[in-house]
Amino acid sequence: MNKPTPMQAAVSVAERFAEHQASFELAHICRCLVLAGGRWDDAARIGEQLQAPDRALRILKSAVPGATTDTSGLSGDFRASSSAFLSALKNIGVVETVLSQARLVPPQTFVSATTLAIVGNEVGEAKGKFLSRLELTPASLEKQKAVALVVMTADALREAGPAGLNFVNAELRNAVIAAADQIFLDAVTTGLTPLVGSATPSADIKLLLDATNLASGSRIVLVVPPPGINSLLMTQASLSPANLTTNGGEFAGIRTVVTDALPGGTVVAIDASGVVAADEGLTLDTARHASLQFDDATSQASDSPPVPTTTVNLWQTNSVGLRAERHFRFTARDTAVAIMTGATWATAA
Q1: Is 187 exposed, middle or buried (0-12, 13-18, 19+ CB in 10 A)?
Q2: pLDDT in tens, 303-338
Q3: Angle made by CA atoms 46, 47, 51, in degrees to the nearest 5
């Protein structure tokens, strides 16, 4: 195996550094917005003072002062920054990991699933030639919108100093991953008959692979809850090389993602090659005068009268609400996803 030259290694390091810097541009924008109290025109001036990256500054300056609080109408610069942010999640988020290996198509694309494939045959001399057929079934790309809401105060960011950028990036990243993964996993596993797990990781993973790894082109993603990754780490002690960490990685050559969106004892295998998706990116919105109900099981609904409840007003608490919406569409082949329950090795002790 040829080793990279010093020049190639230097270019690779420079590219990774550039990708890392680009993934933080969205955090720069959010930090400036929070410090400016959600006002885009003031955020642009703060961005100049904090020496935000050039593209982040262009995004902040492109917003019309007093006329918009979201990014839906901004330039291609925001799409580039949000894409870099999402790309950095592809090894730690289920949605981004699957989309990075799925068959991507433009939005509003008509797709068909192959239910019967053309088969080639060997034909002897003077023998009849076999005839095979192709059957296609129409499939629709279901639109999904994952909403991640993060509330921050300018005082907290000022006290954090330079570390405030890492704080904003981590909070935004965790919120987007949690929202998108929950919606995606709920959608792809609904209606599936769960496989029955056991206390042996290798046996259970073999069952999941048998259900999804059906072709040479399969690209399997194994999704486990935190207790599951702990067991795999201990199982990996006899494997080499060690490419698995508490944040995921590869287990026995299988891309593995850990998520809080699965309950203990539940494991999911996804063949990303059997997923067709349209990536519609990320939008960002801010609010300064909203009242929020801090409750995972909210009693409010847009199609019913308001229900009296305890809320927190952002203006009164000197806070800014950041709402990131992850938009994507997808459909999965029937055999592309398998779910297992009752895997005791993936359950907390």
Answers
A1: middle
A2: 556 565 678 888 888 888 888 899 998 988 889 999
A3: 120
Distance CA 275, CA 83 (A): 20
* Two tokens, residue 218: 């399969």
Cα-based distances in Å from 254 to 65, 73, 97 = 49, 40, 12
Rounded CA separation 316/311 (Å): 11
User: What CA–CA distances, in Å, run from 246 to 93, 242, 349?
Assistant: 13, 12, 17
Burial label for 208, CB within 10 Å (0-12, 13-18, 19+), is buried
* H helices present in the chain, as ranges: 6-23, 25-35, 40-49, 54-62, 76-87, 94-99, 154-160, 163-189, 201-212, 226-235
CA distance 5 to 8: 5
Place of tokens 């993973």: 205
pLDDT per residue as tens digits for the range 140-191: 777 889 988 888 887 777 776 677 888 888 888 999 999 999 999 999 999 9
Position 193, amino acid: T
Q: 77 is written with which tokens?
A: 């610069």
Distance CA 267, CA 200 (A): 13
By C-alpha distance, which of 96, 116, 115, 94 is closest to 104? 96
CA–CA separation, 7 and 25 (whole Å): 27
AA letter at 126:
A
Sorted by sequence, the CB contacts under 8 Å of residue 247 that are 6+ apart come out as 91, 92, 258
Measured torsion, CA atoms of residues 207, 209, 215, 219, in degrees rounded to the nearest 10? 170
Largest CA distance in the chain: 88
Phi, psi of 162 (to 5 degrees): -60, -30
The identity of residue 278, as a single letter, is: A
Domain ranges for the chain, please list them.
6-88, 93-108+141-349, 109-139
Q: Which amino acid type is present at position 262?
A: L
- State phi, psi for 125 to the nearest 5 degrees: -60, 135
| Spatial separation of the C-alpha atoms in residues 228 and 256, rounded to whole Å | 10
